[in-house]
Design brief:
The complex is a heterotrimer of chains A (274), B (311) and C (262).
Chain A lengths: L2 H21 L1 H4 L30 H37 L1 H16 L2 H12 L3 H28 L2 H8 L4 H9 L4 H24 L10 H10 L8 H29 L9
Chain B lengths: L1 E14 L2 E14 L3 E5 L6 H9 L7 E8 L2 E2 L5 H7 L4 E4 L13 H13 L3 H14 L5 H4 L9 H13 L5 E5 L7 H17 L1 E6 L2 H7 L2 E6 L2 E7 H6 L4 H8 L34 H5 L5 E4 L2 E3 L6
Parallel strand pairs in B: 3-8, 3-9, 6-7, 7-8
Antiparallel strand pairs in B: 1-2, 1-4, 4-5, 9-10, 10-12, 11-12
Chain C lengths: L1 E12 L5 E13 L4 E5 L6 H8 L7 E6 L2 E2 L5 H7 L3 E4 L3 H4 L6 H11 L7 H11 L16 H14 L4 E5 L7 H18 L2 E6 L2 H7 L2 E6 L2 E6 L1 H6 L4 H12 L10
Parallel strand pairs in C: 3-8, 3-9, 6-7, 7-8
Antiparallel strand pairs in C: 1-2, 1-4, 4-5, 9-10
Helix pairs in contact in C: 4-5, 4-6, 5-6, 6-7
Classes of the chains: A mainly alpha (274), B alpha/beta (311), C alpha/beta (262).
């Protein structure tokens, strides 16, 4: 197996594990992550694999449940932002001319607004739940993908088969859906993976800043709690390190997957990346 | 009965450097069952003419004049009405290239698309019909090949598939735009005889710079130079006794005529010269060629030319 | 000038199962100084690979290539670089052979600079080369997209000639061009060849073009040379069935009308 294939398989395998954990969280956890499962600040033991926190909740169970929140947030955001980005990108690149001009200029303006701070402000005012947070992220992050998709569509639109389909009497909508989009799928997948990664990390950041949905557990909030309630000062590594590691591995596996997909699409890029 | 009648057609694209006048007062008719060969060098406007008939030029193109198809003016139709004609009544065979078929769809599906769109057949029936069409364009093993993807097709087979796509809904008029470019002699011969077969049963506009192919397929020939028609007539007359110096120049630059090149190059379509557009490259240009723009003159009922020598 | 003996070029494809393709399958050829050998064959017969192998743009897997009595098959890349300027290649698609960001003047000056021409002499040489290939000074500041295919192919020629090569491989130099422009470029190549005493390998799928350009013709099919002869021999009395096929196709593709009487 070549190096690239290996990277892709490993990243898919890691990601699959996360996905399974998220799906089967209730079966894998010994305790409900919200209940008092023992004493407070317990050290790791066979009963509590990663000990308990200041509220006497089982950290291991929290870690497992946290996977759900992170994946959910990442995917909600990514699905929304990639769909919007792809749709706008296709329209912009396919029609060209004034439509394209308008969209590109608007994007130039939108892109100057920093997403994360804006998101912070909105979160502080509205304290939305996890789904709304995902939707907000998706909306704010959709501008990023438009350019990449648009430039690809520009070159696809020049290809002869597009003329061919028009010659056949197809409508623009038909051409975009049946002929442009399928040729973008691999690029869209890459976009999806990278934005999912981006939003997951962003979601953890929000949790850490105390802006997460308090009805769910996520790794950001876990780390935040560990900081706030003496986990760091007392050197309770089992409270702090596991969520950190969980984030890192998830993020890495997605990045790795994204990069190897990208290489697959565009072999020339292999040379430029070390 | 004329199937296509083009009257005083002008087409131009505005660019930063000026208006590109791709077609200037083009008048042409194609009779029912006739195959008209439109020949000329690349950049002379012949592809634009084909695309104007299909009404598939960039939206900012400035078009004037009329194109009648079976008596209705195509340029006056709504986009929606035009879309119903494309593929159904007006077929188009595109130039063979690696991008002329969608790489992510099977060839059979691409042929079936038009049938589904215009005839409302189900996918399965349309696919069966696609296979029949592939058989008709002489692709061996059509049932297997229709499930294959464009990259598994050779250049000649791709061109045959393009012909099948154009013929899918049995249109009555077909435009073929440089269908033999980039094919080697052996494959080209096959494609040409297939096109000649198609031309027997359909009216056709055959756009090409391959004079030998045109002579084999067409009934009449129109020669285009710098956006205008300079000679138009019966295929035998145009090729055996060309009237316009440009047509003779083209014929003489063929290998079998000894590669005698026409000096110079075609004028830019942005900055067209006054008077005769060919005068600078013409061996027999006279003083009046610079002064007056020659008009199309009927020499016989089957031969017209745009040159001062015949005034 | 060029002596090729039992040359073989093999490609292997496939990720898991290795397929080997003999693109050039034991070919021997020789070209005398100042002569043009036409290499004709259908697409995919290996003629382009043969051309690239001779210049060692593709490494041969067996056989030898002698250039000017020197075996260049085993030369190191550094030694090869010294010889490269003397052997040049012209490709099919003129538009992609030029850097779109460079003007004509810059494009032609580039090889001159590489060859170590003195800085003050470069503009003069560029102008000389430009007139040599039949372009005028007004073209100096143009970019490739502002020129026609034929004009771009002239610029490519000027670039190649800037290095003062002894041997040129022209790989389908006119197949992307219109007939009238093709005639111009072919005439130019012929004239330049006579004027500068170049040795040439002219690769084309078009037998009529090759016949017009060459002193002798080699016919290639599926990686092998099937027949070598003078243009008249190949055309009038082809012996190999593959050659017969090609000749009959070529004769068929000819305009059936007689030359005008006027």
């Amino acid at each position: 197996m070549s190096k690239k294939n290996l990277a892709m398989s490993v990243s898919i395998a890691i990601f699959a594990i996360y996905l399974l954990i998220a799906l089967f969280a209730p079966l894998l956890t010994p305790y409900d992550p919200f209940i008092i499962a023992g004493g407070i600040y317990e050290e790791p033991s066979p009963e509590h694999l990663l000990g308990t926190n200041d509220l006497a909740q089982d950290i291991f169970s929290q870690l497992i449940y946290g996977t759900r929140a992170t994946l959910l947030l990442g995917f909600t955001g990514a699905i929304l932002s990639v769909s919007i980005g792809t749709a706008i990108g296709i329209v912009s690149g396919y029609y060209g001319g004034r439509v394209d001009e308008f969209i590109t200029r608007t994007l130039d303006i939108v892109m100057t607004i920093p997403t994360f701070p804006l998101l912070l402000v909105m979160m502080m005012f509205f304290t939305p739940g996890i789904y709304v947070t995902g939707i907000l992220m998706g909306l704010l992050g959709s501008a990023r993908g438009v350019r990449v998709i648009r430039s690809q569509v520009l070159s696809i639109a020049q290809m002869n088969f597009i003329t061919g389909v028009k010659v056949m009497g197809a409508s623009d909508l038909y051409v975009m859906a049946k002929h442009v989009l399928p040729n973008l799928l691999s690029l869209v997948t890459v976009q999806f993976v990278f934005s999912a990664q981006h939003f997951m990390v962003m979601g953890i950041g929000l949790g850490f800043l105390g802006l997460g949905d308090s009805n769910v557990i996520d790794w950001g909030q876990m780390i935040d709690r560990a900081y706030q309630n003496g986990g760091v000062i007392n050197g309770l590594w089992w409270w702090l390190i596991p969520p950190g590691m969980a984030v890192t591995f998830l993020s890495l596996s997605l990045a790795l997957f994204g990069y190897s997909m990208e290489d697959e699409i565009n072999p020339r890029m292999k040379l430029t990346r070390i | 009965m004329d199937i296509i009648r083009i009257k005083n057609l002008n087409a131009g694209f505005p660019t930063k450097r000026g208006l590109v006048r791709a077609a200037t007062s083009v008048d042409l008719t194609i009779r029912e069952g006739e195959c008209l060969g439109l020949i000329g060098e690349s950049g002379c406007g012949k592809t634009v003419l084909g695309m104007t008939i299909m009404r598939l030029l960039q939206p900012n193109t400035i078009i004037s004049g009329e194109i009648f198809y079976k008596g209705q003016n195509l340029l006056a139709l709504k986009e929606e009405e035009m879309r119903k004609l494309r593929g159904k009544e007006l077929g188009m065979i595109l130039q063979n290239s690696t991008t002329s078929l969608n790489p992510v769809l099977s060839v059979g599906d691409q042929i079936a698309e038009g049938i589904i769109l215009h005839e409302g057949l189900r996918k399965k029936e349309a696919r069966e019909k696609a296979t029949e069409l592939l058989e008709k364009v002489q692709i061996k093993n059509a049932a297997v090949m229709s499930k294959r993807y464009p990259h598994e097709f050779s250049g000649g087979m791709r061109e045959r598939a393009m012909i099948a796509i154009a013929l899918a809904c049995s249109p009555s008029f077909v435009i073929a735009d440089e269908p033999t470019t980039g094919l080697d002699n052996r494959t080209m011969k096959g494609v040409i005889s297939l096109l000649a077969e198609v031309a027997k049963s359909k009216s056709m506009l055959f756009i090409t710079h391959d004079l030998a192919a045109a002579s084999e397929i067409c009934d009449t020939i129109a020669v285009m130079y710098a956006g205008e028609i300079v000679e138009w007539g019966d295929v035998d007359e145009v090729f055996s006794a060309p009237l316009h110096p440009y047509t003779s120049g083209l014929l003489n630059s063929l290998p079998e005529r000894g590669f005698i090149a026409i000096p110079g190059s075609s004028p830019s379509l942005i900055d067209l010269p006054g008077g005769c557009r060919f005068k600078e490259r013409c061996a027999c240009s006279e003083e009046r060629c610079a002064r007056a723009h020659p008009l199309m003159k009927e020499i016989s009922s089957s031969h017209k030319v745009r040159c001062h020598r015949y005034d | 000038m060029i002596e090729i003996t039992d040359l073989k070029t093999t490609f292997s494809t496939g990720l898991f199962k290795k397929h080997t393709i003999n693109a050039v399958d034991v070919v021997s050829l020789h070209i005398k100084k100042g002569e043009t050998l036409g290499l004709v064959g259908e697409s995919g017969c290996g003629k382009t690979t043969l051309g690239k192998t001779i210049l060692r743009l593709v490494e041969p897997s067996a056989g030898t290539i002698c250039f000017d009595n020197q075996d260049i098959t085993r030369l190191s890349m550094r030694e090869m670089r010294k010889i490269r300027p003397r052997m040049q290649m012209i490709f099919q698609d003129p538009d992609s052979s030029l850097n779109p960001r460079m003007t004509v003047a810059e494009s032609i000056a580039e090889p001159l600079r590489q060859a170590g021409t003195k800085k003050q002499e470069i503009p003069k040489r560029v102008e000389e080369l430009l007139t040599l290939v039949g372009l005028s000074l007004e073209h100096l500041d143009r970019h490739p997209y502002e020129l026609s295919g034929g004009q771009n192919q002239r610029v490519v020629l000027a670039r190649v000639l800037a290095l003062e090569p002894d041997f040129i491989i022209a790989d389908e130099p006119t197949s992307a061009l219109d007939v009238s422009v093709q005639a111009q470029i072919l005439k130019l190549i012929r004239d330049l060849k006579d004027e500068l005493g170049l040795t040439c390998l002219f690769i084309s799928h078009d037998l009529m073009v090759v016949r017009h350009m060459s002193d002798s013709i080699a016919v290639m099919g599926q990686g092998k040379i099937v027949e070598i002869g003078t243009p008249d021999e190949i055309f009038e009395s082809p012996s190999h069935p593959y050659t017969k096929d090609l000749v009959s196709f070529a004769k068929n593709a000819v305009l059936p009308y007689k030359k005008e009487s006027k």
